Amino acid sequence: FKHPVVRKNTILVTWFFMLISLVFDATVRNVENLNLSIYMSFMVSTGLELPADLLSIVGLTHIGRRWSANLSLALTGICMLITLPLSDYPAVANFFALFGRFWATYGMNTGLQYTVEVMPTCLRGTGTALASIMSMVIQIASPYIVFSAVVHPALPFILIGTLGIF
Fold first, then answer.
1. 131-150 per-position pLDDT tens digit
2. 3-class DSSP state for residue 50?
3. Least buried of 6, 83, 87, 156, by fewest C-beta within 10 Å?
């Protein structure tokens, strides 16, 4: 933290990785709030992992790390917020919720790559470990986001969508 540029990059990358990890973990846990069988939603969400991984490679190559990171978070948030007015149509709402999960997976892959590439070589291991540990600390909040459905059924989608757009 001696150099201001390294300090700024470390703080920004750590904050980004914390945010994307929280959004990803909350979308994974939010499966129970979907109007879909847990087995069916698990099958669909695991089927979306490989395409999201492959698309993240293409996106990182062609549009870059910063745009991939920001777009994936924004698209996750938008998809989660779209589910709110569509709650009367469970199939469509589930589609958008799982599509949001797709973009969260894309964002997590981007976050992992972005964190490693931004850190200087001599600090790469320590900086990546710091970002990873801080992301695990913030993931403590994801069960509370998912269980906020007790207060209102739409609240997890509002929180995940807001975090994604933020």
1. 889 989 999 999 999 899 89
2. helix
3. 87
Candidates 50, 67, 45; CA nearest to 114 is 67
pLDDT digits (tens, 9 = 90+) for 20-46: 999 999 988 888 888 888 888 888 888
Mean pLDDT of 3-23: 87
CB neighbour list of residue 41: distance below 8 Å, 6 or more residues apart: 31, 34, 94, 98
Q: Is 119 left (phi over 0), alpha (psi -120 to 50) or beta?
A: beta
d(CA 128, CA 91): 39
Backbone angles phi, psi at 12, to 5 degrees: -65, -45
Cα 32 to Cα 148: distance, rounded to the nearest angstrom: 12
